[in-house]
Amino acid sequence: MCGIVGYVGPRSSMDVLVAGLARLEYRGYDSAGVAVVSENDGLVSQKRAGKLAVLRDDVDAHPLASGGTGIAHTRWATHGAPTDANAHPHLADGGKLALIHNGIIENFHELREELIASGEQFLSETDSEVAAILLAHAFRETGDLTTAMQQVVKRLEGAFTLLVVHADKPGVVVGARRNSPLVIGVGEGENFLGSDVAAFVAFTHKALSLGQDQIVTLTESAIDVITFDGEEVHPPEFTVDWDASAADKGGWSSFMAKEISEEPEAVANTIRGRLSSEGQVVIPELEALDVGRIDRVIFIACGTAAYAAMLGAYAMEKWSGIPVTVELSHEFRYREPVVGPGTLVVSVSQSGETMDTLMAVRFANDAGAQTLAICNTQGATIPRESTATVYTHAGPEVAVASTKAFLSQAVAVYLLGLYLGQHRKVVSAEVAASIAKDLHALPEQIQEMVETGPRIKELAGWMADTRSVLYLGRHVGYPVALEGALKLKELAYIHAEGFAAGELKHGPIALIEPGQIVFVIVPSPRDPSSLHSKVVSNIQEIRARGARVIAIAEKGDAAVLPYADEVITIPPASPFMEPLLAVVPLHIFGMELAGAKGLDIDQPRNLAKSVTVE
Ligand code: F6R
C-alpha cells in the first residue's frame, strides 16, 4: 500500500526520491517523508501529513541536502492517523538511523511493550517505529546494518518491506521483504529500490525482483542479496517494457481519463501476437502448465479484477467445456477448498501484489494445484510464485480506480478460455475463427465507446446530487453492473449497487421509487438466448415504479427506446464482446460524476492502488 523508494548514487538523491514518490503516490497519499545520509551532513529528514505536494513544498523552501543516499515513503495509514508524527521515516539511535516500512507488523504491540519496559520512548502510534528501534539496538551491537536487519526480521511477524539508512554508513541502503513488494533498479554506478518499477523507470529499465524473506544491501557499485538466514541469492533480472512517459499524465486532466483513453490500446496489447486471424491461440507462457490434467478452473481475485474474471469465466466455460468458478481471494483461502493437480487456480491481479490474492495463490500452491497468474506488473510477487504467468501488457495503471486493466484482464481470460478449448479440441476451427474476428475488432469498437465521453459527461453533470444509483445486468451484463457500481462508490462516494436483473423481483425491487436512477445493460436483440426480452421486461417493471432508466443497448434496439429515459448505444457485437463495450461508458460515468462533485478522481479517499495488507 505505501510507496517506498531508495537511492544510492551520484545524483541529487532528493530529486530521485521525490520523482520516485511522485510516481508511487497512487500507492498511498496521506503523508510522505524522506531521509538522506551524506558524509558532510549526517542524516537529515523531513516528513509531512497530507499529499506529496506538502512535503515537496517544504523541502523546496528548506532544502535538506543535495547529495547522499536516501530513502523516501508515501503512506497509507494502518496504525495511527495520518499525522506528521506517524509519517515515515521513523528515526532512532538519536536521529542517526531512519527507517521506512510498508505492511503490517502483527506482533508490534508486544515488541512495543518490551521496548517501553527497557526504557525506550515512542514518538508515533505506528507499528513501524518498533522496527526502527529494534534496528538501532541491533546496529549498536553489530556495527553492521545488514546483520542488524537479519536479526530484526526474525523478530517480526506479519508483512513488511523495510528500508533503513544510518548516518554512520553513508552510501548504503539495506532493505528486507516479507509478503510485501520490493524491486531493485540496476543502474550504472547507481542503484535503486522501489515498491514497484515505477519508482525508478525514469532512470533505468533493468530490474531485479527481490524474493520472499530476502535482504538486499545496496551501494553505488554492488547489490548483495541474502536470505533471512544469510544464504547468498542471485535474483532474476528483467527489463521493464514500458517507458517513464507511459506513467505520466501526458496532458490529460487525470490519470483515469488517460487510462480510459488507453482502453482500446490495452486490449490490442493483450491480444497482440497471441491470436492468429484463424483463431489459433499462441501463448508460450502456458507451456509451463500441465493442461491435459486440468479438470476444473477456479479464478481468484478481488474487486474489479474479480469482475473481469467473472466476465471471462462465462466465455471460458463455454469455449473450453471445463467447469469454471470465480471466488474472491479472501473467501477462497479461508474456506479451505479441496483442490489438487487437476485444478487450475487462476489469479487475476493488475498489481500482482494484492495480499488477499497472494495468500490465496500460496494456499493453492501448497494444496498442490497448478497456479496461473494473469497480471499487468512485471517483477510483482504473484507471478513469481505462480506456475505460469500471462501478462496483460496494458501498460502502467496509475489511477486508483482500475479501468483499462479490467478490459485487458477479461480479454486475457477469453484468450485462455479459447486456448483451453483448442487444447481439449472442443472448439471448432470455424468457431475459433469467428471469436478471433470478434476479438480483433474489439479495439476499434472500444474506441467508439471512449468517444461517448462528452455525452456521458453531460449525463453526469445533471446527476451530481444523486444519492443512489442501481445497475442491472444479466449473464455477461451482470459483472458489468457490478463493475459500474463499484466505480461509482469508489470515485463519487455515492451509494451504488449492481444486481443480476433476474434477482430484482427477489428483493431489490423494493428499492425502486420515483426518481431512482437505474443503469440497465441490455443484451443485443439478436442474442439467441432470448435474454433481451427478459431484460426489457425488467426495464418495464422498474419504469412502472417511477425509476429513471439509462439503458446501454445495441444501436437500433427499438424495443428499449419507449421505456428508457436515456439510451447509450453500443455497436453491434457478439454476446461475449458486448460487455467489453458496455463497461466503457460506466467507467467514464464514475469518473465524470466524481469530477462534477469536485472530487479527486485519481486518488479517492481511503483507497490505495496496491492493497498489500489483508
Ligand atoms: C477498483 C479497483 C480494485 C482492484 C482490486 C484488485 O477500481 O481498482 O477493486 O481491482 O483491489 O487489485 P489488483 O488487480 O491489483 O489485484
Can you give a write-up of this model?
This protein has 614 residues and is an alpha/beta fold. The protein has 3 domains: 3-241, Glutamine Phosphoribosylpyrophosphate, subunit 1, domain 1, CATH 3.60.20.10; 259-448, Glucose-6-phosphate isomerase like protein, domain 1 (Rossmann fold, 3-Layer(aba) Sandwich), CATH 3.40.50.10490; 452-596, Rossmann fold (3-Layer(aba) Sandwich), CATH 3.40.50.10490. It has an 8-stranded antiparallel β-sheet, with helices on one face. β21, α15 and β22 form a beta-alpha-beta unit. It starts with a strand and ends in an 18-residue tail after the last helix. The model has no long low-confidence stretch (mean pLDDT 94). Fructose -6-phosphate is lined by residues 302-305, 349-351, 354, 357, 401-402, 486, 490, 611.
